[in-house]
């Protein structure tokens, strides 16, 4: 297969470190401050999902921001338009770097949310966060288990989000290349980084970056390692080493999943 583009040691114009998002979804509110202090200079952002937000609330996010952390608020806002607009405005006031909402079939609906957030930022002098559409489609396979949607379906939702001038999408790894080809270079792609071992994670990360991913979400297994900072350094070094290799060396992850 042909990859979208290559990077020697950078993702777009930022260092690789700045494009890594550590998920805190398995952490307790008590652990969050320690993890933020530990990884503050090692990664670019931290992800706060529903369970953690329900446990810690807005004050947890405010404390993370006071510690200098950038936050991806992954609450996947989904309700009638007025309720989503209100939630988006409150997320903006929290100072998060990005938040997400469920992708909608109506371009006008997503556009309205973006316009209201931009208006708030202009009126109150706030930094405008990245607004992502969640295009993680789920379907049931023959065994009745949940499976990821087809890349073509995800790309369709991503195209609608791009038409609404949202900043990007949260998608499953196997949809990365399809979305990048449809939405172009300026559209932000955030995707989880699969893999249990550092070796596999670095391989998948290089392939995702080549396919067009901008941000990679790292699971709790990394910060639960015996030496988390050492594991992070080894992961980054492994990714950069693979990105210096020819693209054909690391084509296995996508070859069986993408058209």
Write the layout of secondary structure elements.
Elements: E1 10-11, E2 14-15, E3 20-23, H1 29-39, E4 45-48, H2 50-66, E5 71-77, H3 81-93, E6 98-102, H4 107-124, E7 130-134, E8 138-140, E9 146-148, H5 151-163, E10 168-170, H6 176-183, E11 188-192, H7 198-211, E12 215-218, H8 220-223, H9 228-243, H10 252-255
Helix pairs in contact: 1-2, 3-4, 5-6, 7-9
The H-and-E topology, N to C, reads as: EEEHEHEHEHEEEHEHEHEHHH
Summed up, the helix count is 10
> Residue ranges: pLDDT <50 for 5 or more in a row?
1-13, 138-147, 254-259
Strand content: 15-25%
Outline:
globular
CATH-level-2 architecture:
Alpha-Beta Barrel
| Number of E-type strands | 12
Main sheet characteristics = 8 strands, parallel, barrel
Helix content: 40-55%
Task: Report the span from N to C terminus.
Answer: 9 Å
Spatial arrangement of strands, main beta sheet: 3-4-5-6-7-10-11-12
Gyration radius over CA: 18 Å
CATH level-3 fold name: TIM Barrel
- Summed over residues and divided by their number, the pLDDT gives a mean of 86
What is the class in the CATH system?
A: Alpha Beta
